[in-house]
Hints:
It is built from nine helices and nine strands. The protein has helices spanning 3-10, 13-37, 105-109, 132-137, 142-159, 163-169, 171-189, 210-279, 281-296, and strands at residues 39-42, 47-52, 55-60, 63-66, 73-78, 84-88, 110-112, 118-129, 193-204.
Amino acid sequence: MSTYERLIAEGGPDGSAAGRWLLRGAAGVAVLALLLTSSYSVPADSQGVLIRLGKFHSVVNPGLGFKLPFGVDDLVEIPVQRQLKLEFGFNTQGSTNPAQGSRSPDVEQNMVTGDLNMASVEWVVQYRIQDPQHYLFAVRDPGQTLRDAGESVMREVVGDRTVDEVLTVGRQDIENEALLKLKALTERYRLGVMIMQVQLKNVNPPRAVQASFNEVNQAQQEKEQSINVANGEYNKAVPRARGQADQKLRAAEGYALQRVNQARGDAERFSALLAEYVKAPEVTRERLYLETMRAVLPQLERKVVVDERVQGPLQILNLESKGGRP
């Protein structure tokens, strides 16, 4: 027996004092343990799941609260307000979500397409925990279950498409279909999560054929560029030719209308002259003669008048000015 135990057993003064201090120390430790194990604090972006004796008890809101001490109640914090993500085919360093990174990126990213070709696909699933109770108790490992479901859905969607659709024009359709299928699968499993987005990152052919694929892709781009250039030249030349054709057609129609109207006017004028000629032939003949001479004579530079009563040419006074006509 030690000296300390003997003093307590003998009941001496020192033994009584040591016993009292021992009881006080034990009571202090018990009180401290009670305080530490009977309170909790939940952050503002989370909810707490209270577990009593290993079974679900309730969901508590953010803030300070109290629970049964000494391990009777246990509290698990679930970040319900944070948007979480899972990365497939690659890893981001420094992530706080244990299920975020890929354990075997090379295995996840290699997929078989519908035409039995290979494609290297990297994608991200963004989600938020909606029901903490289901998230903790519906499945054994919710993070890994969600990852397995995301990989299964993406392999199914990629397997229904050709490699050209996966690598080029079908990315948006793949994202939309994978999002719908993954939402339905998580609801079926009652994972308690809301899938926000499925986004493809890098989609490439396998490394062994990537150089050849890049050459084919470059050739297709050059083909599309040549087609666009040809369409541009067509769009410039054809409208211009149509405009010129329309212009010439309008000019021809205008000239035809002008000729028709002029011919009709000449015919009506001739009919009017004919009616006047029938009424007074001599007068009409003389008037036509004078009108014709009035139109013709000003165009002549030299004028000679011949009269039977005059022997020789008849001189006419030159009224023209120098350097031009009167």
